[in-house]
Design a protein that fits this description.
5 strands; alpha+beta
């Protein structure tokens, strides 16, 4: 009986891991780019010891003003795995449940599917237990202040001054 319970538990863990990786593959490419940027920055910290994977999205928003420009806002969780940092093959990594989630917010501008360097992409990640309401508000305010404006509405609304 105990062996059957252990087998079912292990099958559930494998299914849970597969579903989480499936969640990343189902993300639109524009949102994947922000997750990848957050993972790159997270892995650049020398204190990080484990490989992290995308866990799930909390908020996704994209504004498409036209001309192949898209403004992205994405709030999501990253979760530690049992693989060491620097692991290339994530398919064998299983999520650890003894580490807190990392709550990340990314906002950036894309043009033709690529992240633009201006305005500078904003990535903010913090362990979920340390995340405060003030931090959440600061994230939203920062993204709103980044000046994401293509100028297209102003340009199109301009009557100009044409002399015949």
């Amino acid at each position: 009986m105990a062996a059957l319970l252990l087998l079912l538990l292990n099958a559930g863990v494998l299914l849970f891991t597969a579903n989480a990786q499936e969640a990343y593959t189902r993300l639109p490419d524009n949102f994947k780019k922000g997750v990848d940027l957050a993972l790159e920055r997270l892995n650049s910290h020398r204190d990080v010891q484990h490989h992290f994977l995308f866990f799930r999205s909390l908020i996704q928003s994209d504004i498409q003003p036209g001309f192949d420009v898209v403004y992205i806002y994405h709030n999501f969780y990253l979760k530690a795995t049992d693989c060491p940092k620097g692991n290339v093959d994530s398919s064998q990594c299983r999520f650890r449940n003894d580490r807190p989630l990392i709550d990340c917010t990314a906002c950036y501008k894309t043009f033709s599917g690529e992240i633009e360097q201006e305005p500078r992409p904003y990535i903010h990640c913090v362990h979920k237990p340390a995340l405060t309401e003030e931090m959440k508000t600061a994230r939203v305010n920062h993204c709103n202040r980044m000046g994401y404006s293509s100028g297209a509405p102003t340009l199109l609304a301009s009557k100009g001054d044409v002399e015949s």
